[in-house]
Amino acid sequence: xxxxxxxxxxxxxxxxxxxxxxxxxxxxxxxxxxxxxxxxxxxxxxxxxxxxxxxxxxxxxxxxxxxxxxxxxxxxxxxxxxxxxxxxxxxxxxxxxxxxxxxxxxxxxxxxxxxxxxxxxxxxxxxxxxxxxxxxxxxxxxxxxxxxxxxxxxxxxxxxxxxxxxxxxxxxxxxxxxxxxxxxxxxxxxxxxxxxxxxxxxxxxxxxxxxxxxxxxxxxxxxxxxxxxxxxxxxxxxxxxxxxxxxxxxxxxxxxxxxxxxxxxxxxxxxxxxxxxxxxxxxxxxxxxxxxxxxxxxxxxxxxxxx
Length: 307
Known about the structure:
By secondary structure, the chain is α+β, with helices and mostly antiparallel strands.
């Protein structure tokens, strides 16, 4: 079922190209491992299990890691009310609604498709945002579900996980010498496996980060057009980014592993070359885009007006 979120062909093309390139990389990676380890069954089983776990259980893993729990309407009636209204306007299934008892203001959506999705917000976000700002953030997250880019990012990121698992396996498996005994061939194989794994991780890292940055801009655009209030989303972005900067660094590092799924990253995108490795565009890029949309919609005539 097609939602009423504005479709984004450029996002679709980028997701398709990224999955295609990662698919080629994955095939080459598996072929290289089979040639080196001489055990295709082991390689295929590990790859299949990792992909299956990420695809089918990504929502539970993310919720568990962020201490989120599913909440009913009786507990958070206003939150459910906003999600109900947005889903009705967007003509899409309502996801499960979850709340994480974290002071860090943020939100994320996860799940393999619109019928199996979870929308989670932190209590820190609920305390800080006005109703129209919260609506903008939730619309942003729902657009990720509607565009199916949550599932794409989940599937795409599994290759890097596999590469990391192989490196660990190379250290601990008895295939590499067992009981501390290593010959020259074993050392060569170990080095080759680790080198290939590191290369695969690096390539997948760059591809996923590029897709992640674009999908955030696409979600901002879709949310702004659905709600008709890009200024409210811009206000939420500014407020959340500023408040995250005041959260203790040790608390942010816990959340950093899930940056790609967040409304705003635990650590913001810095100017310069480092921004090419960020999961999100800079705040300036996002605000500039929302300002353009606001001008297109003529929003200045009714700033901040609730719908």
